[in-house]
Request: fold
Amino acid sequence: MNAVALKNARIYTAGEGPSVPSIIEKGTVVFQDGKITAVGENVAIPENAKVIDVSKCVVTPGLIDAQCHIGLSEDGVSRAGDDLNESTNPVTPEVRVLDGINPADIAFRDAVASGVTCVQVAPGSSNIIGGETLVIKTWGTVVDDMVVRRPTGLMAALGEDPKRANGSNFRPPLTRMGSAAIMRKALASARDYARKKDAAMRSEQDAEESGKPGSGRLPELNPGHESLIRVLRKEIPLRVHCHRADDIVTAIRIAKEFDIDISLEHCAEADKVLEILAQSGFPVTMGPGLTKKNKLETKDIGFAAPVAVSKAGVKLAIVTDHPALPIQYLRICAGLAVREGMDENTALLAITRYAAEIAGVADRTGSIEPGKDADLVVWSKDPFEYDAKVRYTFINGRPVDIRDGNDVLLGGDIL
Reply:
């Protein structure tokens, strides 16, 4: 494929380091074969490149929603399209969202049309351990072809949701104490399984080297434990749904006990435990801020907590938790955070590079830098302006959404 150059744009790179300034006032982005090859003010454009003049427009990285349920809880199809929670057991680490996502969910069209090019999809929060998360692009017909990375984490939950989903059926957990105990038991059981498996493998290896019969016996394969082992080995984080301040602290406590990495999801009351949160070094995803206060633990939900967390130096991503808030309002949430006091660059990073880093895909996407995927959005003006419109959305260098006034042509070809 020939190179493409977006020329004369105001570019918000979301880049890191002096080689790529955060804002380029009148710059060019060049990409080819799905990858960004150059960005800057004085960029050499290949002779055979397709040049698109985007004067008076703003170019950003494709937006990233680091915590949502798109394709898993489908828009407009009620129970038939609800594959959010495997509620038959409070511990289901073997569940994979890959097997539940429907790429035909109309919400993917809304995502692309609003500049969201990449999402981390997670199971719901009914279970203490809910299953694997993954990151996909928002355009495709076969979910396997949309995958950027899997798994990117293992979903877990504390607080009201697992209590309500399980306790109402007279099975544990009934309390927050029970929730924490079940989480610990799941991690401890997987740790014991891993020790037995490692010991058996060492015994067989020693036997092979010595020529004597081995005494090790591998435990029966347990897919759930195998998923949890990735967490225990810090290959992926445990992504813990926790709104209330004490649930946030419990998640941090358990992470320290088992020496694992976690990300803290939603965190409506994060501003009440800023010191311990900042000391932990764990990142947070926050949102949806633009939604109803439908639970006691979300009575303070809004934008005050994200602003406070950002000022405390904690890495955060702003999320929609789609369908709790429709995914097309991701950039509106970031804009409202700016209105309430968040630094504008931090707000952009919270839906681009920081989101990519928290989701574990920053090597591929999240900023406009050479070598990264050509996931780009051309806006009519600053995307934090309420009336900004998407002119072009590129995913892997392909124009997948073209807006001209009110017309939307998905899968269009301007190249």
About this structure: Confidence is low (pLDDT under 50) at residues 405-410. Residues 176-210 form the longest helix (35 residues). The CA atoms of residues 353 and 366 lie 4 Å apart.
